[in-house]
Specification:
329 residues; alpha/beta; DHBP synthase; Rossmann fold; 2 domains; nine-stranded mixed sheet; four-stranded parallel sheet
């Protein structure tokens, strides 16, 4: 199969509709990462997502819709706090989990009685979703467990020959996947941290819990259980307090003739001045935006990435730290 990367215009949208209506999949941009989308009503198309990615069959998907789509047709109840949160944060990087009407393919939620719904803010994603006017089930558009894609080229590198079309919407600015929020109880509960933090949610809803998965429990959200976001090279991760030891490890490996890169935030880069730098940036938003792009860059040029966790680890950085620790194993 020939994989095309096309800018989002009337012609590429018409092709995407033809592919989706024919039971195929299309990669499309969001403000967080690129998604691999299929018609959520089409059982065969949804199952093909799992096959293309090599995704575990018990890892549920998120349904994406445009901002004017009536989600009441998909879910049985929307609590008042969820309506308030939607007014503040949507469209945006917040996925909300509701009790399902069970009208989409059962493969989307992997047998759960819930449905995760997201309204992305990316203009290209909105054009795509509005053109189709369907709920589109979509995980990240990469091989399972690999670093999530934030450019069309990242998608192509992973899925060339496996899909027909990648809609190119430029680099994703958010950089890490959406926050997933369980809205089935009296109090909202974060299942996966992201750019919309628990504190931000609590300021609107009055209260917010953060979920801790128990051993042996069934996965309730993407990103909760399995190894994710990993580059195709060796990695070593050091705590911020051990950054000097990390730099010594980098220098030792370099002296041994290894192709090695040093990944850290800008302040650490200025402190040690490594030659082979993967600079994550200075602010929490910059670090979130750059993490996957720098991991992809590192795996292209190095056999080992030596990383240092950022100094700040609260707020948005909770989600960043989750991805970084999983990426480095």
């Amino acid at each position: 199969m020939d994989t095309k990367i096309l800018a989002i215009d009337d012609s590429s949208l018409a092709l995407s509709k033809k592919i989706i209506q024919g039971g195929g999949v299309v990669a499309f941009p969001t403000e967080t990462v690129y998604g691999l989308g299929a018609n959520a009503f089409d059982d065969g198309a949804v199952r093909s997502i799992f096959a293309i990615k090599g995704r575990p069959a018990d890892n549920p998907l998120i349904v994406h819709v445009h901002k004017d789509y009536d989600i009441n047709t998909l879910v049985s109840y929307i609590p008042e706090y969820a309506k308030l949160l939607a007014k503040v944060f949507l469209p945006g990087p917040l996925t909300m989990v509701y009790r399902s009407h069970n009208r989409v393919s059962a493969a989307v939620s992997c047998g759960l009685d819930t449905l995760a719904i997201r309204i992305p803010s990316h203009e290209g994603a909105q054009r795509f979703l509005r053109y189709l006017d369907l709920p589109i089930a979509a995980p990240s558009a990469n091989v399972s467990k690999h670093v999530s894609p934030v450019t069309a080229r990242h998608v192509y590198d992973d899925l060339k020959g496996k899909i027909e079309l990648v809609l190119d919407g430029g680099k994703c600015n958010g950089g890490i996947e959406s926050t997933v929020l369980d809205c089935t109880g009296e109090i909202p509960c974060v299942l996966r941290s992201g750019l919309v933090t628990a504190d931000m949610i609590a300021q609107v809803a009055g209260e917010c819990h953060e979920y801790v998965m128990k051993e042996g429990e069934k996965v309730r959200s993407p990103g909760m259980k399995y190894k994710h976001y990993s580059p195709n090279c060796r990695t070593a991760l050091f705590e911020y307090a051990d950054r000097a030891a990390a730099f010594e490890e980098y220098r030792k490996l370099k002296a041994e003739g290894k192709r090695v890169c040093f990944m850290a935030e800008s302040a650490v880069m200025r402190e040690f001045m490594p030659e082979d730098a993967l600079d994550l940036g200075a602010t929490d938003r910059e670090i979130a935006s750059n993490l996957y792009d720098k991991l992809r860059e590192g795996e292209r040029i190095a056999e080992i990435i030596v990383g240092v966790v950022p100094c700040k680890q609260d707020g948005v950085m909770v989600g960043v730290m989750n991805r970084m620790r999983k990426a480095f194993g």
